[in-house]
Amino acid sequence: MKQQEYNKMIRNIKKYDTMPYKDIVEMETRINESKKSLTSDELYKKYFTKMHREVFDSIINYLLETTRLRIDKCDDIIYRSWNPSRMAY
Question: SS in 3 state form for 35-80?
């Protein structure tokens, strides 16, 4: 990764420093444990209706920018692209 790309990634991550970590973890867990593929709207309606939609969208954007999530461009399906249980230590 080039230094310029790295700096941009760090800036993007830092703008989310105030994100509620427990909500991020819960969202990743829900996506990971889901038995079927979900769009972002379906994910919100199924699990996060008590969360303000702007907060939900910010968390989704954070997870996308940090490459922990991916969204299939064709059908808008969300899936995790990073799984800590698969990391080699």
Answer: CCCEEHHHHHHHHCCCCCHHHHHHHHHHHHHCCCEEECCCCCEEEE
